[in-house]
What does this fold into?
Amino acid sequence: GYKEITLVDDLGNVVVLTEPPERIVSLAPSNTEILFAVGAGDKVVGVTNVCDYPYNFTAWIEAGNMSSIGPYWQPAVEPIMTLDPDLVFASTASEEAAETLKNLGYNVLIVEPKTINGVLESILLVGRATGNHVEAGEFVNQIRDRIDAVINTVADASSTPKVYYEVWGPDIQSAGPGTFIDELITLAGGENIFHDAGTSFPMVSSETVIMKNPDVIIFPHMYMGTVSWGTYADIASRPGWDSITAIQNDNFHIIDASIISRSGPRLVDALETIAEMINPELFG
It folds into this structure.
């Protein structure tokens, strides 16, 4: 039996559900990943055109097995309403649509966790909302175990390597405090060289990176469909970068941007991957 449940989202909005949702629309790739991870995927009737995990939804949409509501950033409400959803999972990228839908009487939860712990809370929220709280609880416990395993392993490291992550270039943007990237590098046993930046995604100078001299350099593989930085040779040949320890030691890594920037369950995959990049000798 389904009891009436009261849910509070990340912006403090309250939603009361009297029956389990049967027609769910997801307005963010991270929400789509969470919905499928907790076993509610069969209730999802609409996703964005950038939702690409755990399935190739473009193929599903072409085959008529899923509907696209359009973009992740500022989607229009009409395509969402057409699907007659009984629950919509939005994000701050779709806040305007969420507001409009709420005013029209739709159930809308805005899921926008800012920390790894927040993501685990979001998974539990989505589980409760969809009647999959048992699966969500088990899934979160598995993730916590994996996080603990990394933390316990890197506790044996002899040093804390300095890590540089480039979000975008050639006008360099890195990741600072309040980002998943910063939290992941720290948990993985590294020190983010821009941990003390004044903003979450600071624009930084090439000279500052050289001066901070990272031991490990990580670049995103794909970001919104493009590689902004070229090749490893392009990075190594940036003026003055040949003096950076990471470049001298060939300690250069590439990571899938969607696992390190999405507020979804694959952040634990990113954590394990980064921990191995930082301290390969600890992970056999």
